[in-house]
Each structure stands twice: as C-alpha cells, then as structure tokens.
UniProtKB/TrEMBL annotation:
<keyword id="KW-0479">Metal-binding</keyword>
<feature type="binding site" description="in other chain">
    <location>
        <position position="222"/>
    </location>
    <ligand>
        <name>substrate</name>
    </ligand>
</feature>
<feature type="binding site" description="in other chain">
    <location>
        <begin position="249"/>
        <end position="252"/>
    </location>
    <ligand>
        <name>substrate</name>
    </ligand>
</feature>
<dbReference type="GO" id="GO:0070095">
    <property type="term" value="F:fructose-6-phosphate binding"/>
</dbReference>
<feature type="binding site">
    <location>
        <begin position="21"/>
        <end position="25"/>
    </location>
    <ligand>
        <name>ADP</name>
    </ligand>
</feature>
<dbReference type="GO" id="GO:0005524">
    <property type="term" value="F:ATP binding"/>
</dbReference>
<feature type="binding site" description="in other chain">
    <location>
        <position position="211"/>
    </location>
    <ligand>
        <name>ADP</name>
    </ligand>
</feature>
<keyword id="KW-0460">Magnesium</keyword>
<dbReference type="InterPro" id="IPR022953">
    <property type="entry name" value="ATP_PFK"/>
</dbReference>
<dbReference type="InterPro" id="IPR000023">
    <property type="entry name" value="Phosphofructokinase_dom"/>
</dbReference>
<keyword id="KW-0418">Kinase</keyword>
<comment type="function">
    <text>Catalyzes the phosphorylation of D-fructose 6-phosphate to fructose 1,6-bisphosphate by ATP, the first committing step of glycolysis.</text>
</comment>
<dbReference type="InterPro" id="IPR035966">
    <property type="entry name" value="PKF_sf"/>
</dbReference>
<feature type="binding site" description="in other chain">
    <location>
        <begin position="169"/>
        <end position="171"/>
    </location>
    <ligand>
        <name>substrate</name>
    </ligand>
</feature>
<feature type="binding site">
    <location>
        <position position="162"/>
    </location>
    <ligand>
        <name>substrate</name>
    </ligand>
</feature>
<dbReference type="GO" id="GO:0016208">
    <property type="term" value="F:AMP binding"/>
</dbReference>
<feature type="binding site">
    <location>
        <position position="243"/>
    </location>
    <ligand>
        <name>substrate</name>
    </ligand>
</feature>
Length: 319
C-alpha cells in the first residue's frame, strides 16, 4: 500500500477533523502518500482529490465540522455514480480509502470493497446508531450540548411554572434523548424504541405539580415524530402552559469535547493501521476501552439497541 485517501460523508459531527488529522498523520508516519476528498462521495465522483501533508491538518483538532466538507450523494448510489468514483480512484492510483461517517457512508465503502478497493470505516454520527462501537465520534459533544440546553431551560421552566418539551436529534435512535435526559434530570423521556402512554404520563406530571413541583422537562427523540401533538395533549391535561424547543443542528456544531478528540484520534489512526495489515471492508470501533475492527456486513446488519436497564433507571430517577 502506497496511497490512501480520506473523506467525510453524510451528516457532520464534532470530532471529524480530529479523525482526519489522525488518518493523515498516521499515514505519513508509515510512509504513505495521503490524499483528501472534498464533499464526500460527490467530490470523489467529480475528482476533487488533493494531496495532504502535516500542515494540511495543523490546528484543526479543536474545530467542529469537517475541513473536507461533506454531502449526501444520491448519484453515488447508482451504478453510474459508483463507476465514476471508482475511475477516479484508479486515476490517482489509490490503494486504500478511509471513510468517516455513518451507516450510509459505510454502505458506500462496502461497494468499493467488492470492486477490489481496500476500505476502512470510522464511525462519526451523533445518533450513535451503529452497532459494534460503544460510542461514535461526536456523540459526547452532542450530549453535552443537550445537557446544557436542559439546564438552561430548566431555569426558565422553574421561573414561569411551565412544562417544556425539548426535541433532540437521533433519527430513529433514542440514544441522545435517553442519555441526555438522564444527565439533565428530566421528568419524562420519550424514544422511538419504547412505547409510551400519554394519559399515564399526564397523570404522573399532574401528581408532581400537586406535590409542589414548579416545572416539568420532557425530552423527546425526533424519531417519535409527534412533538407538537404531544405538547398540545399534555397542556390540555395538566393545565400548564407547554413550550416546545427543537435543538436541531445546534447538536452537531461546536468544538469537540476531550472525549471526542481522543476517540477520533484513536479511531483514525487505527483505520490506517488496519489497512496496512491488508484488511478491508471493516469499521474500527470502541468496544470497552479497546479499538477493534468489525466486518461492515456485521455492522450494517445488526441494529443498535437501547438498554432497557438505562431506560428503567431514567424512570426510577424521575419519580
């Protein structure tokens, strides 16, 4: 292996730059030529490939977003788009590709592996919905953003005796909502993986107000999909004004936490080292305190589950 290329694809997450830095500097340490791709698979199809050196990644570890930029490329999902991307890889004599992103990104590199290109995936998604890694890059930073928002809104909720609903990202995964809700000490957490009963929730909240509680915070994962309807139902039942706050893209931005910088550095370096061993079509992930590589077929075929024990803990602590 002489030349490798690195790209970021899909939604951005804090820590992607730290991972890019680790890939580039680890590759250079091992005597490889390292290239970057701008705008993910779209840039690969269009040939936006350029050489990178130590200076290319200087001063980026603390920055959010991705210096390589990112996109979602529908064309890449077609045979024509895949062939065009493969042609560019061959034009630049690329031997290995490191893709930083989520499940959509990994489905792309799985296709490349089938065509003979050595590939390695680095998990970076605030949804934390990939199996075979305890944490993906960006999750910890996003959780801190959610927790900070809960703390601030709780001050206002107490002052005005209102119920506040906070919608967080996560697509069909409730991880951010569950962990952020536990850390923020909220009263109710609704996630798509576990069913809920609104009449029971409203009764619980009403009992809390009768005991003297001055506020109520409810965290809802966006995958639940009924935030405003839930807000209206609860307002009618508990008799308090209800306000909705949708955190949205705030959760993706900002300087990555120390945890995310360390995780991204370890995963980026490991991706290059596994390529050098001749491995392909794998994702490097954090399992316990170890970095391990898992076949992409396994990663993409096993949905990540929410811990029922953690959800039960949230219920107990909210009483």
């Amino acid at each position: 292996m002489k030349k490798i290329v690195v790209l970021t694809s899909g939604g951005d997450s804090p820590g992607m730059n730290a991972a890019i830095r680790a890939v580039v500097r680890t590759g250079l340490f091992h005597g490889l030529e390292v290239f970057g791709v701008e705008r993910g698979y779209t840039g690969l199809i269009e040939g936006q490939i350029f050489p990178m050196n130590i200076s290319s990644v200087g001063g980026i570890i603390q920055r959010g977003g991705t210096i390589l930029k990112t996109s979602r490329c529908e064309k890449f999902k077609t045979k024509e788009g895949l062939d065009m991307a493969l042609q560019k890889i061959r034009e630049f004599n690329i031997d290995g590709l490191v893709a930083i992103g989520g499940d959509g990104t990994f489905r792309g590199i799985r296709e490349f592996s089938a065509l003979g290109v050595k590939t390695m995936g680095v998990p970076a998604t605030i949804d934390n919905d990939l199996s075979d890694t305890d944490m993906a890059i960006g999750v910890d930073t996003a959780l801190n953003t959610v927790m900070g928002a809960i703390d601030k809104i709780k001050d206002t909720a107490s002052s005005h005796e209102r119920a506040f609903i906070i919608e967080v990202m996560g697509r069909n995964s409730g991880y951010l909502a569950l962990m952020g809700g536990i850390a923020g000490g909220v009263e109710v957490i609704l996630i798509p993986e576990i069913s809920y009963n609104l009449p029971e929730i409203s009764l619980k909240l009403k009992e809390g107000y009768q005991r003297g509680k001055s506020h109520c915070i409810i965290v809802i994962a966006e995958g639940v999909g009924e935030t405003y309807e839930i807000s209206k139902f609860l307002e009618d039942k508990i008799g308090f004004e209800t306000r909705v706050t949708i955190l949205g893209y705030l959760q993706r931005g900002g300087s990555p936490s120390a945890f995310d910088r360390l995780l991204a550095s370890r995963l980026g370096a490991a991706a290059v080292e596994h390529l050098l061993k001749g491995e392909t079509s794998k994702m490097v992930g954090l399992m316990g305190n170890k970095i391990e590589a898992t076949d992409l077929e396994v990663v993409l075929s096993q949905p990540k589950t929410i811990s029922q024990d953690l959800y039960n803990l949230a219920l107990r602590l909210a009483k």
